[in-house]
């Protein structure tokens, strides 16, 4: 059976109507937007959810345009003010600003490449005024400088900078080895200084201890000599009083006794030759006199003196 022309027209109209009706529906995913254009000209931004627009071909909707945070990493090779080459690792987190998403969609084709260019220029400009040691203390300086530059430049393209992270600079292998040698030499120098101070402290403490020991020994020796002197004085006084000798003779006697004891001790060892000088005679004489005086004092009887008779008593009557 032949289909009439009217039925064909109705079918075509129905298909076209359905297609145009379906094109009015705009479904946008979460954390995305869609750009609506009217005859190729920007019209509006549709956020996540369900919305409607004029049918195609009057208005068209773009694909889902992501608002998610993206991250790019860049290792920037920089030269310090003292001609040291290091790598500065930097990570930049950014996203499309929902309020100016049309600028990000239309104005910038390669945002990652543009951000890398700004990062490299800013980091190298900052590093050129810093020394090698200052680079390791300038993380905040790099972060603030890069974030400020990117915020100023990229906001005009519809992007928002969320965060800038700067890791520790990475020196080259040769520079790292040289720096390690410098640190090692400084540590050795500090160790040598500490060892010298320890030896100095130990020597001072030892000297103080020896000085205190010598003082104690000297005090003990002085006390000993004092006791000996007091004993000798008492012995000499008793000897002089009992013998009737003079103090000088008594002192010579005790000196001779000491010399004879020294000769006796030297001769008792055996195999020794003892030379006696001419002074020994004086010593012997003093010793002999002392011993004679002492012997006489001890052995002489206490004789009773007889009364003397007068001449007249001896005459006969």
From TrEMBL:
The chain crosses the membrane at residues 6-27. It comes from the Bacteria. Residues 293-317 are annotated as: Disordered. Its main location: membrane. InterPro entries: Band7/mec-2_domain (IPR050710), Band_7 (IPR001107), Band_7/SPFH_dom_sf (IPR036013). Residues 23-183 form the Band domain. Keywords: Membrane, Transmembrane, Transmembrane helix. Pfam families: Band_7. GO terms for cellular component: membrane. It is a single-pass membrane protein. Signal peptide: none annotated. The keyword Transmembrane helix applies. It is found in: Membrane. This is Band 7 domain-containing protein. It comes from Sulfitobacter litoralis.
